[in-house]
Structures are given as structure tokens and as C-alpha cells.
Amino acid sequence: MKVLAAMSGGVDSAVAAARAVEAGHEVVGVHLALSRMPGTLRTGSRGCCTIEDSMDAQRAANIIGIPYYVWDFSERFKLDVVDDFIAEYAAGRTPNPCMRCNERIKFAALLEKALALGFDAVATGHYASITTDADGNRELHRAAAWAKDQSYVLGVLTADQLAHSMFPLGATPSKAEVRAEAAERGFSVANKPDSHDICFIPDGDTRGWLADRVGAERGDILDRTGAKLGVHEGATAYTVGQRRGLQIGTPAADGKPRFVLEVRPVTNTVVVGPKEALAIGEIAGTKYTWAGKAPETPEVAFDCEVQIRAHADPVPAVAQVVPVPDGSDSAPGALELRITPAEPLNGVAPGQTAVVYVGTRVLGQCTIDRTVSAVPVPA
């Protein structure tokens, strides 16, 4: 099989490419240039897709003995990931840029180009597994190593994309084993730190980065009843669950700290309240997809588990596809994937991704449009 190995410059993708070669595939390595500042250098574990990463990927490809190319996807990345990130924050939501990158860059733009060039599959260093059921349908499953499982960020993949995806590290027991294998192969990236934070904000100052691009306009800080408590310097600087930096002069009646419960961009207000009000009893989203074969009757409630962050624990839940409620901003007749957890979820914000599992299988996902608090608003 002809395989295009996406090589980020990290240890995981280098070992994945090497394993694809040893499995007998005809492999070509490619590094995606996503930064619009090609001279940028990586700082510790912050950032990725820099010129340094490109050189690391090339050195690994040379050792493996495969052709290596750099493809410039910076314009597509800006439009589909960076601009989307800015727009989502401006709309008061909390986006996950890694999900958008997997959805629109690595398994859309890259895969489309790979197929057009005659490749059969794209291989990456993600920790997840693909299996095939009795009818030949491909399924996405958690990796063998729970601590490094990355199936959550792959929840956006569709059946067509799974048909052309390879994850050679899925059955590997631990990241330590991958690093040891990289060292044995002579890869210089064997001990390279994993990338963290948002790759296009390498200094980690998301608040300042957004202020430069979205602007910061003063507005009111309200409690759940609508009473004004203070003034903020820009709503985009706040996220649901945030405690620090609220700068409210008057303490709560019970003396307990307040948390951000909601960001309302239309009125430029931030709603705060007690920690218990962060408990969410229902989430829903109209932008949902199925990873592989869809349920035969998704309109009938089914048992599942839901995960709302890459490293969160899954929570038992019931899900079903239903019409959006009256008064929704969605088009008439629109459907949503509605998920009711068995126990409240903590600090969930619109814009986040909810991934639905049945056992180890990733069944699908939705971008959260709305949340319903498990704690009623005081009268």
C-alpha cells in the first residue's frame, strides 16, 4: 500500500513512519508547514510545526530511508483553524483548535491531496486504533495505553476518512516504549518534549493574543439574576470555569469565590456565580458526526459515555438525536445530538467538543452549542 506519513518533527510520528515501512508499505514522509512565520523556532515544549520541527522530521526520514517533502498548508491553516479560533472566541465560545486541525487539515486537506496523488492512506503518530467489524466497517477505538490515548482528538473523523487512515502506534503500551524504540533507531527526537498549549500561540498568552485580534471592550460582570457586580476589560479574555482575574470588588454574600458561568458576546457581558452552578446536566450540538458507521436508530436514546476534554475521564450518559428546542437559533427542523450525563459535567462551555464512546469505540462527536445547568437560577 502507498502511504503518506505525516511527520510533525516529533518522536511519535517518526516511529509511526518507520513502522509503516517495516509493515511493507511504500512510504513517503511529509511535513506540514502551518506557521506563517517560517523562521520561528520552538521553545521547549511550546509550539509546533516550526522550522526546527521540519528539520527534525527530515533527519528522521533520512534515517528511515524514505522520500521527504514539506507542504505549505499555512494559508489553509490560517483560514480553517486560526481564523475559526478567533471567530469562536468572538462569539463567546471556547473552541478546540486541535480538533479543527485534525478535522480540516490533517484528515481533510492533507488526505484529499494524498488521495489525489495516488496514496492509499495517511499515517500519523496518534495513539488510537482502527478495527474492522464483521461487515467490513472500520471503527475508531481507544489506544492500548489509556494515559496516552488520543482518540478524543480524532473523534471528528468520518467513515470515509477512517477508510484511509493508519495509526501504527495504537497498540503500543506506553510512550516510554516509543521513546526507547526511537533511540534504538537513532532518531535525534527520542527525548524531544511533547508539544503543549496552542501551537500558534507559542508564548502561551492566549488572552493577550486574542486582545490584539478581537479587541477588548469594557462591559458588565453580572450574577445569575442579572445584577451588576463589576466591570470587565474584554469578554474574550474569559472562559467558563475561570476563577482568577475577575476583579469583582464586592465579595459574595457567602464569602465563597465566584466563577465564570457564561460569556455573552452580543451584550458584552460576563456572568459569574458559585462553583456548584458550573455543574452541567445536559449538553447538545447540531454539528455532529459519526466516526464510522452511524447508529441505526440514533433518534432512540442509547447508553454511552461522553468525554468533553482530551484528558478528562469519560462519564456514563444517554444520547440521542432530537429536534432542536423551540427558540433555538438553528434553522427550523434542525437536529441536535443531545447528551445527558449520569452525573453533572463540570465547567462545560459552548464551542467545546463532546466525544461519544460505546465501550472503547469512538461513536461520534458534536461541537457543543448549548448547555443546561444542573443548578436552577435563583428566583
What does this structure look like?
By secondary structure, this protein is an alpha+beta fold. It folds into 3 domains: 2-185, Rossmann fold, CATH 3.40.50; 217-273, Adenine nucleotide alpha hydrolases-like domains (SH3 type barrels, Roll); 279-373, Elongation Factor Tu (Ef-tu), domain 3, CATH 2.40.30.10. 23% of the residues lie in helices and 28% in strands. α1 (11-22) runs parallel beside α2 (51-64) and α3 runs antiparallel to α4.
Keywords:
379 residues; alpha+beta; Rossmann fold; SH3 type barrels; Elongation Factor Tu (Ef-tu), domain 3; eleven-stranded antiparallel sheet; five-stranded parallel sheet; 7 helices; 20 strands; 23% helix; 28% strand; globular; tRNA binding
Give a nutshell description of this structure:
This protein is of the alpha+beta class.
Number of helices: 7
CATH names the topology of the largest domain as Rossmann fold
Helix content: 10-25%
Shape: globular
- The overall pLDDT average reads 89
Q: What structural category arises from helix and sheet content?
A: alpha+beta
CATH architecture of the largest domain: 3-Layer(aba) Sandwich
Number of strands: 20
Q: CATH-wise, what's the superfamily of the largest domain?
A: HUPs
Q: First CA to last CA: what distance?
A: 64 Å
CATH class type of the largest domain: Alpha Beta
Instruction: Estimate what percentage of residues fall within beta strands.
Output: 25-35%
Gyration radius from CA atoms, angstroms: 22 Å
Domains (count): 3
Described by strand count, sense and barrel closure, the largest sheet is: 11 strands, antiparallel
Order of helices and strands: EHEHEHHEEEHEHHEEEEEEEEEEEEE
Low-confidence stretches: 39-47
